C-alpha cells in the first residue's frame, strides 16, 4: 500500500518512515478554514507576492547578477530566497489546481536564474553583485547556503508538480554540485549560519538519487558545534553552533534556524537510519514542548535574536513567535510524525496550523504578521511597526513562506503505511491513496463531527486510523494509546464512519513555572486557541477579568464584520475599577483583584484577530 | 546662603533652581555602603578602568588619530567616550581625595587628545581614522556629538576639580566651538542619534559663560522630532526623534538616550526659564514612574533596542535596566530636584542608587553588570553572556560611567537654598555648606536613625530640611507634604537633631496592570529592594513560594561570605512539589499553588546579588 510514496507529488518524500506521505494533489480540501485559506492564498496572497518580486528588488537583483540590469542591489543578502519560496508556492499551487501562468512564471524565473548563475554553479545575487570577493567567506551571516536550500526546495517542487521546472532543477543541481565540490569533496569545512540547506539537500537527493547531496547534508549537521564559522556577533547559540547536535538538550537561539535544523536532522535520520540523530531531535522536541512553546504553538520568546529563551520564559506580550518559525515547526513535526507515527506530532501540527500559523495572515489574505504575540497592549507606541499586519516587509521571509505552506496543505492531511490509511488533519474534501478514495464531510473546526465515506477501496482488509487530538477528552470512538482510533476491516464503497470530537470550550491554565502567565487563564475550543479583542467587549479590556470556573458559552456567527464566519465564546467576567497608579506602581496593598461589576466577556479565535480595530488583545486573561 | 553655587566643584552647577548643589568635596562620606562603594571604586574599579584604556584600544585609537600609532582601529565608533568618562571619574576622585596620579593622567590624556584633534576642533578617533569622509554625515548612529558631550563633561570636571584640566578644557572648547560653527551658526541642522551632548553643552556654558553652547543645546533639543536625521534602522522612537520633545507624552526607545535627553531638557530650562521644557519633562517623568519603572528604579524593559516598552510592560526576567540608564535617571532626577525642590525626585534617586545602580558592581568592585534584571532563571543557557557580572565589555559604556557617578556621590547628598540646608541622602560623614558644618552619624541603610550634629553655623536662623522617603510611613519627626521634615531655628555648635526612619521590612505588591508580576510580591526594607538568591535557600528556589502576609524577620549578618555586611530578611515560605510538565505546560487544572511544606525563605539586598553561586535569583516571588 506504500508503493505510491515513490511518485508522491509533495514537499517531503522520504524513502523510509513509519508513515508515508501523500501528494499535494492527493487531497482535495473543499471548504472550511483550510479551504478558505487556500482560496485567498491563490486569489490574493500569491498575486500580491508575484507583484512584490519585482517591486522589492528580488528580480532586479538577479538581473544585475545576470548582467542585464542597472541600479543598486536592493534589500538583504538573502533577498533571493523570497523568489525561491514564491516559486515553491506557485509550484504547489499548480499541483493543486493547474494554471498555465504558474509554469510560465517558473520557466521565466529559471531562465533568469540560469543566466545569473556563475559557470561553476554558484548563485547568489547579493554576493555576485555586491561582495564577489567574499563568496563563502562570511558563512556566519551570508545566508548563501540558506538561499541555496530554498532554491533546491523550489526546484523539487517545480519538478514534482510538473510546473515548468526542468531548467530550475538544472540550476539547482549545478549549485548543489558546486556546494558538494566546495564543502564535501573539496575539503572546505563550514556550515551556514542559518540552517535550511540540510533539509533541502536531503530532498534534492530524494528527487535525484544523487547521494552526495545527502552526504553533504549529513556533514553540515555533523559540523555544527565545532566552531567552524565565526561568531556573527550574536553568539554561537544564535546559530546553534554552541554544541554538536547530538549533545544539545534544548532548543536555543534563533528559533527558525533551530527548527529548520531539526527538520534536516530528522531528514538525514530517515535516509541513513542514524538513530542518534532521531534521538537527539526527539529529546529537544520534548524539552521544547514542555518549556518553550506558546499555547498557540508559536516558538521564540525573544525579539532580541528572534530567539528561544530560557525554559519557561514564555511572555505573552513579547512572544516573538515568528510566522516562519511556525512553518519550520510544522516541517519538523511532519518529519517526526512520518519517522515515528506518534500522534503527538500531528497534535502539535494542528495547534500550530490553526493558531500561530493561521494568525499570520489577514482574513482577506493581503496582510501578514512577522511576529505573533499573545497580547497587544493599549498604547501601541513602541510596537507601532510590528503590532499590526502589514502588506510586506523589508525582510519579507514570512509572506512567501506562508504561501508555500498553504498551497501544500493537502500534503499534511493523511499518510499511508502497510496497514492502511491514517488521517491526521480534518477538512472537508477527498483523500486519494492508491485504490482508496475517502470523502470527508465536516464542519471542522467549528463542529466536532467528521464523517468519512469510502468511495473506492481494495477488496482486502485495511485499517482506517483517525487522530484523536489530546484536547478531545470525550471522543467517540475513543483513541488508543497512540492517539488514534483505528478500525480494521474490509471497506466497501458507500461505507461510512463517523468521528465525534469533543468541542466543549475549555478554560486552560498555565503551568506554575511560567511566571509571565501567573494568575491567568486562556480559552480553547477544539483546535482553536481564543483571544479577547477590544472590539467584542462592553468595556476596556484592560479592566476586565475572568471569573474563575466561568461557564463558557458558544455563539455561532455567520459573518462577523471584518472576520467572517466564526464561533465566539462568551464567559462571565468582572469589570474592575480602573485606578492608574499615582507614583510607582508598587505598594503595600495586596493586588487581589477587587470585586467588580459582572459583565459578559467575549472571545474570538486567535487566528482571526487583528481584522478589526487594532485595539487591545489578550490570549491569557487575569482571573478575578 | 546660596552664594556658594558659583564656586561649587561638582558636575551640575545651574545658575537658577529652587535648590542649589554642593560640591563633591563639600560632603565627606565616611562609611556605610556609599563609603564602601567609594573605597572600592578608588581602589579596584578605577585602577581596572585605567588599565583598560590601553587594553581595549581607547588610547591606541587616539594615537592613530594623532598619527602616532599603527594597527587597526579597535572597538566601536564611540570608543573615545570610555576615556572621557574615565577622565571624569578620575577628576571627581581627585576632588574627593587628591592623588597626584590623577591630574597626571588627565594631563597626559589631554596632550594626546590635543595632538589627535583636527585644527578645526573636530575630534573623534573613529571617524578621523576609519571614515574621514563621513564626518557628521551619519548623525543617526555616529555618536560624534555623544562622544563630544562626554569630553565636555570630563573637561568641566577636570577644571572644577583642579585636576590637570587646562589643556583638556581647551580641547573641549575647540570642539564645542566647532560644533557651534557647524550646527548653530553654520546652518547645518541635525541632532545626534544618541542624546548626551545637550546636557554637557549646558554645563560647559555654565563653566565658561560662552552662551553659544547653551544656544546650541537648546537648538539640538528643539531639533528633535523633525526628522532631520536618517533612521538608524531602529526606527525614530529609538532616538526619541518621533515627536518634538514638547509633544511627547511618554518615554520611548533607547532608555539611556531618553534619560540623557531629559537631563538636557531640564538643564536648558534651568538656564533659559522655558517652562514648556520643564512641563514636558515632568509629564514624561510622571508617566514613566507610574508605568515604566522597575521596583529597583531600573529603566528599559526590552533587550531589543535597549528600550522602554509599552506602559506596564515590566518583565522581571527580561528587564534590561542598563546600568547607564540608572546613572542617566539619577542625572535627570537630580536636575528635577534642583529645579523644583520636590522630594519625589530625591526618593527616586535613592531607590535607583541603592538598587538598580548599586547592583551593577560586584562586592569587590572588579566586575560589572551591563543589564540588571530582576530574575535569573535556573538554566542560564541563553543568558550565559549577560547573566553574570563581567570584568569589561566590548561596549564598555557602563563601567566608567559607574565610576564617575561613585566618585561624585557627595554631590548628590545635600543642597542649599535661601532658607537653609536640605539633606536628601543619608550617609555618615560631614556636610559643609558655607558657614554650616554638619556631622552625620548613621548606620543607614541598615538602621533608620540618622543623627545630625551642628559643628558650625551662622548666628541667624536657618532651616534644616531632611527628606523623609515615601516608604517611611512611621517617621519621627513626620514629614510635611513636600516629603521633608523641617526645623527652622538658630543652630549652635553641638546642637543635635535625630531623624528616625521606619525600617520595618515591607511586603510589596505590584499594580494589577503589570501582567508580568501578577501573583507575586517583593520584599523591601528602608531604601533597599530585596531578592531571593538560591545561595540562601533550603530548597530549589523555583519551587518556593511566599506565604501571603508572612511575617518578615530581620537577620543582621556582619560578614556573609562573598557579600560582606548585610541585613537578611527571613519570611515564611512553602516548598511546592516539583512537577515538570509532560507535554505542553497548559492544562485544564487551575494553577492555584498547592499546599506545600512550610519552609523559611531568606532574602538578601538586591544590590548584593550575584556575589556567590550564580544560581537562581528573583525579586518578585510567587505568593502561595
Automatic annotation (TrEMBL), chains A, B:
Positions of the Non-reducing end beta-L-arabinofuranosidase-like GH127 C-terminal domain: 505-622
GO biological process annotation, one example: carbohydrate metabolic process
Domain Non-reducing end beta-L-arabinofuranosidase-like GH127 middle: 421-503
Domain of life according to the entry: Bacteria
Annotated ranges, domain Non-reducing end beta-L-arabinofuranosidase-like GH127 catalytic: 26-410
Coiled coil (residue ranges): none
Transmembrane parts of this sequence: none
Family matches, as PANTHER family: DUF1680 DOMAIN PROTEIN (AFU_ORTHOLOGUE AFUA_1G08910)
Protein name per the record: DUF1680 family protein
Species of provenance: Streptosporangium becharense
Amino acid at each position: 500500500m506504500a508503493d505510491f510514496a515513490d511518485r508522491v507529488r509533495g514537499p517531503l518524500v522520504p524513502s523510509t518512515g513509519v508513515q508515508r506521505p501523500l501528494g499535494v494533489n492527493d487531497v482535495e480540501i473543499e471548504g472550511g478554514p483550510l479551504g478558505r485559506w487556500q482560496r485567498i492564498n491563490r486569489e490574493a496572497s500569491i498575486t500580491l507576492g508575484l507583484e512584490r518580486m519585482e517591486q522589492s528588488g528580488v528580480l532586479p537583483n538577479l538581473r544585475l547578477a545576470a548582467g542585464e540590469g542597472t541600479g543598486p542591489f536592493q534589500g538583504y543578502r538573502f533577498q533571493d530566497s523570497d523568489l525561491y519560496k514564491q516559486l515553491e508556492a506557485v509550484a504547489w499551487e499548480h499541483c493543486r489546481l493547474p494554471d498555465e501562468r504558474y509554469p510560465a512564471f517558473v520557466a521565466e524565473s529559471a531562465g533568469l536564474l540560469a543566466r545569473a548563475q556563475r559557470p561553476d554553479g554558484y548563485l547568489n545575487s547579493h554576493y555576485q553583485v555586491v561582495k564577489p570577493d567574499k563568496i563563502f567567506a562570511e558563512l556566519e551571516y551570508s545566508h548563501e547556503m540558506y538561499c541555496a536550500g530554498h532554491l533546491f526546495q523550489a526546484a523539487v517542487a517545480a519538478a514534482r508538480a510538473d510546473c515548468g521546472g526542468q531548467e530550475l532543477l538544472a540550476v539547482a543541481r549545478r549549485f548543489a554540485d558546486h556546494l558538494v565540490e566546495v564543502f564535501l569533496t573539496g575539503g572546505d569545512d563550514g556550515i551556514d549560519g542559518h540552517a535550511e540547506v540540510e533539509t533541502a539537500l536531503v530532498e534534492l537527493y530524494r528527487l535525484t538519487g544523487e547521494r552526495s547531496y545527502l552526504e553533504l547534508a549529513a556533514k553540515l549537521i555533523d559540523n555544527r558545534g565545532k566552531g567552524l564559522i565565526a561568531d556573527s556577533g550574536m553568539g554561537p547559540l544564535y546559530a546553534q553552533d554552541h554544541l554538536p547536535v547530538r549533545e544539545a538538550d534544548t532548543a536555543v537561539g534563533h528559533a527558525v534556524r533551530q527548527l529548520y535544523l531539526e527538520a534536516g536532522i530528522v531528514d538525514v535520520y530517515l535516509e541513513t537510519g542514524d538513530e542518534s540523530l532521531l534521538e537527539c531531535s526527539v529529546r529537544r522536541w520534548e524539552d521544547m514542548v514542555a518549556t518553550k512553546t506558546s499555547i498557540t504553538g508559536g516558538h521564540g520568546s525573544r525579539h532580541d535574536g528572534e530567539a528561544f529563551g530560557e525554559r519557561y520564559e514564555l511572555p505573552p506580550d513579547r512572544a516573538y513567535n515568528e510566522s516562519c518559525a511556525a512553518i519550520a515547526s510544522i516541517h519538523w513535526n511532519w518529519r517526526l510524525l512520518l519517522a515515528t507515527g506518534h500522534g503527538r506530532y500531528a497534535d502539535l501540527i494542528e495547534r500550530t496550523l490553526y493558531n500561530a500559523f493561521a494568525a499570520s495572515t489577514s482574513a482577506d489574505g493581503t496582510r501578514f504578521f512577522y511576529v505573533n504575540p499573545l497580547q497587544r497592549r493599549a498604547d501601541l507606541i513602541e510596537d507601532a511597526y510590528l503590532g499590526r499586519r502589514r502588506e510586506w516587509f523589508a525582510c519579507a521571509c514570512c509572506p512567501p513562506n506562508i504561501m508555500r505552506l498553504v498551497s501544500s496543505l493537502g500534503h499534511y492531511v493523511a499518510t499511508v503505511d502497510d496497514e492502511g490509511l491514517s488521517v491526521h488533519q480534518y477538512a472537508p474534501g477527498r483523500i486519494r491513496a492508491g485504490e482508496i478514495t475517502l470523502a470527508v464531510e465536516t464542519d471542522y473546526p467549528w463542529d466536532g463531527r467528521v464523517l468519512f465515506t469510502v468511495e473506492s477501496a481494495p477488496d482486502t482488509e485495511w485499517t482506517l486510523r483517525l487522530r484523536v487530538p489530546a484536547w478531545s477528552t470525550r471522543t467517540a470512538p475513543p483513541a488508543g494509546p497512540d492517539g488514534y482510533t483505528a478500525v480494521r476491516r474490509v471497506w466497501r464503497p458507500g461505507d461510512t464512519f463517523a468521528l465525534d470530537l469533543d468541542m466543549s470550550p475549555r478554560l486552560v491554565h498555565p503551568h506554575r513555572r511560567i511566571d509571565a502567565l501567573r494568575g491567568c487563564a486562556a480559552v480553547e475550543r477544539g483546535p482553536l486557541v481564543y483571544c479577547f479583542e477590544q472590539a467584542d467587549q462592553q468595556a476596556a479590556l484592560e479592566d476586565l477579568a475572568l471569573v474563575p470556573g466561568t461557564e463558557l458559552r458558544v455563539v455561532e456567527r455567520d459573518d462577523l464584520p471584518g472576520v467572517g464566519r466564526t464561533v465566539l465564546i462568551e464567559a462571565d467576567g468582572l469589570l474592575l475599577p480602573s485606578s492608574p497608579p499615582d507614583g510607582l506602581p508598587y505598594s503595600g496593598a495586596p493586588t487581589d483583584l477587587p470585586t467588580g461589576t459582572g459583565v459578559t466577556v467575549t472571545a474570538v479565535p486567535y487566528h482571526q484577530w487583528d481584522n478589526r480595530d487594532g485595539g487591545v488583545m489578550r490570549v491569557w486573561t487575569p482571573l478575578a
